[in-house]
Design brief:
The structure is a homodimer. The first copy, chain A, is built from 13 helices and 19 strands. Chain A has two domains: about 300 residues, 3-Layer(aba) Sandwich (Aminopeptidase); about 110 residues, 2-Layer Sandwich (Alpha-Beta Plaits), CATH 3.30.70.360. In chain A, a hairpin with a 3-residue loop joins strand 1 and strand 2. Chain A is α/β, with parallel strands linked by helices. In chain A, strands 3, 4, 5, 6, 7, 8, 9, 17, 18 and 19 form a ten-stranded mixed sheet that branches. In chain A, strands 10, 12, 13, 15 and 16 form a five-stranded antiparallel sheet that branches. Chains A and B meet through strand 11, helix 9, strand 12, strand 13 and strand 14 of A and strand 11, helix 9, strand 12, strand 13 and strand 14 of B.
């Protein structure tokens, strides 16, 4: 924690002055204006990547950026970069942002908050007269959600060269529209933007986002300092028994796949039991065959989504899934397939300390916490020191029209971001 | 048990003589000929009610009956009656039979065995020169399976006036063919048959059938004396929770409908635990919403098929289903709907004693047992003293092309039937 940034010296610190210059009302109004683009019933938003709605949102964002005098750029996959210049034009920038696309039935804050937060920071720095050594870029990554063109986090994956652009261009949406065409249309809509390359040098990356979980709200804390993004292992379990007549076959003679699945899930619940409530264990899909009320099921398949912020715990629990299922299921055959395995992403300690120091300097209560969901920061962390700031969202609801957050919590996150970016852009 | 029918007096007893006259080879060959009509891969049969295949099978059956000199009749829903006359033309007949239609993907013995068994009995009585006081009718009930026109057991329901014919005529099959049309075509194909009324007086009804369960095979017994058809209660359970992000939402904060269903089914397993293995408890259908691997399920519905031969046990267990589910599911809402409730059908003690005496007289080992499956005898038992004879089927497999039974077991069942029918038709 940087004691020189403590509250007693507030007036002398341009980072704090920038934080104080954050305009809560304008920030909220901009969210509400963005939410009109692709609005759906129940206060929701359907603004999928590279659609007409996405183009409209991009133009609105550009109009705000240009009105404030910032330069705008686009790379070849449509990632947006809005720049506030620093004293050293050759220094690697500090980058902050998130994404503007939404889920099919999404909310008003997921993604767009991090983008609007970044623009508000640039403007607050202007108002506070706070110069930085490095440039600051606000980024809006293309297609984070992946609801239209799978997979998500596409813009940050391509930017960081985790995945070649060429591999993405042929991907079709459910209506058969190819990404290359939708992207060309999107890029052509804002011809005034400068061209930006992929993977340019970056000093640090900070992403602000609603928590998408209930922890901060439950604890009454405005700020989450995201230490990591959980690792994930996904499994598909298949239980194979034998169909039989529900009226005639004695229970002891059955090979009942539904009962096999119930036994396996019960045993997995015991394996995953965690007093700290950190393990995320979800059986979200379950399918029975023939799925007839008066026939014993011959086959049941179910999925496991297992996540944990610590790689060793994730490895240990995931490695026990198959044996746990096999031991629990005595009368049916068991097949376990692992379909996804990604170790945790651990954010940069200096970035986290800078966020923590900024929150403390602003008298905003904060806690360190892992992120359950994926974010573009997961890919950025592979090319530069990265971190994330969470703010509370109502009841933890996200990917849902009911997604909500308070104007003051959103502004608090931007204040911490402003001070953090100011410090990093001067280091 | 009727001691006068004991093995020491075999030569003097025309019932035993008729049993000995049963022709195992012809019985088997007739099954194999019938199995060619609607044959499907894997030795199976697809001969659904009132189809071209059903008409072909009816004509073949009539040709055998006529060749042996028996008269043939049809009622208005197409139930077939083949009569061997008794000494008293006005006496109520003894009726035996079953059905000729099969499941969509059925086997070679379910139903047709009881019909061919009846014809074999008439012929064996002829060969043994055994006269009876009462006429004997072999019946083939229309549409027992209900796979094409639901519900099943339609012929016996209409005959016994449990359901009016008019209610059935408008029922359409999945291709939109109306039952009235398919029935008219079927009746027109055998214009030589006499017209028979519904619900004529009947002295007794006996149905032979493969067990459709593994008990007789496991015990090595050729004959089951069916004491009852289990009662059934069917339930639909709905567990309503809340969808949530699988990565972000702590387990303790979830209202996970899959976990609710697992808890409910586990508690129901405990409720249904039965050392005698008589309770039939099946969860055959389970459906999760949204059924996505990385979303906590908001809703799971599952079915319960509960059966028991004793009405009091069925009532007691069924009445505890709702409370058991509610107590087990702490975090979700629970809705329990009962969709079917039929008390057990208990067969006539005199008919059962006659079957038992016949088996003993023929030195065929037999056990009393309940039937897990429904049969036409369930409806006949409401209008006349009824009973059923089971024979073993391989591994208990039924409603499946792999359904199988041995020629000697099939013949043993017919021998017991012949002696039983002879006795009842002389009482």
């Amino acid at each position: 924690m940087n004691v020189s940034n403590g509250p007693t010296q507030m007036n002398h610190n341009p980072g704090i002055a920038a934080a104080e210059a954050v305009d809560q009302d304008r920030l909220w109004q901009r969210h509400m204006e963005m939410a009109k683009i692709g609005a759906i019933p129940g206060n929701g938003v359907n603004r999928q990547a590279l659609t007409k709605e996405d183009i409209t949102a991009r133009k609105l964002f550009f109009s705000w950026a240009k009105a404030s005098g910032f330069s705008i750029g686009l790379d070849a996959i449509g990632n947006i970069f809005v720049r506030r210049h620093g004293r050293d034009p050759d220094a690697a920038p500090v980058v902050t942002g998130s994404h503007m696309d939404s889920q099919l039935s999404g909310g008003r804050f997921d993604g767009i908050y991090g983008v609007l937060a970044g623009l508000e920071v640039l403007e607050a720095l202007d108002r506070a007269g706070a110069e930085t050594e490095r440039p600051i870029d606000v980024v809006a990554w293309t297609n984070e959600e992946g609801g239209r063109f799978a997979p998500g986090a596409m813009g940050s994956m391509v930017f960081t060269e985790s995945r070649p652009l060429d591999e993405c261009l042929g991907i079709a949406d459910p209506q058969g529209v190819v990404l290359a065409d939708a992207l060309a249309e999107t890029l052509a809509a804002t011809p005034e933007a400068e061209k930006r390359p992929f993977n340019f040098p970056i000093a640090a990356y900070i992403e602000t986002h609603i928590e998408q979980g209930p922890v901060l709200e439950a604890k009454g804390l405005p700020i989450g300092i995201v230490t990591s993004i959980q690792g994930s292992r996904w499994f598909e379990i298949e239980i194979r028994g034998e169909s039989a007549h529900a009226g005639t076959t004695p229970l002891k003679a059955r090979r009942d796949a539904v009962q096999g699945a119930v036994a396996a899930i019960s045993a997995l619940n015991t394996l995953m039991d965690d007093p700290t409530d950190t393990v995320r264990f979800t059986v979200g899909r379950i399918v029975a065959v023939p799925n007839s009320p008066n026939t014993v099921a011959s086959r049941v398949s179910f999925t496991i989504d297992l996540r944990h912020p610590e790689g060793t715990v994730l490895t240990d629990l995931g490695d026990k899934v198959e044996a746990t299922c096999r031991n629990a299921v005595t009368r049916c055959d068991v097949e376990v397939r692992e379909v996804f395995n990604r170790q945790p992403c651990v954010f940069d300690p200096n970035v986290l300390a800078t966020i923590e120091g900024s929150a403390a300097a602003l008298n905003l209560l904060a806690m360190r916490m892992p992120s359950g969901a994926f974010h573009d920061a997961m890919f950025m962390n592979e090319i530069c020191p990265s971190g994330m700031i969470f703010v509370p969202c109502e009841k933890g609801i996200s990917h849902n029209p009911a997604e909500n957050a308070s104007p003051s919590d959103l502004a608090a996150g931007v204040r911490v971001l402003a001070m953090t970016v100011f410090k990093l852009a001067n280091s």
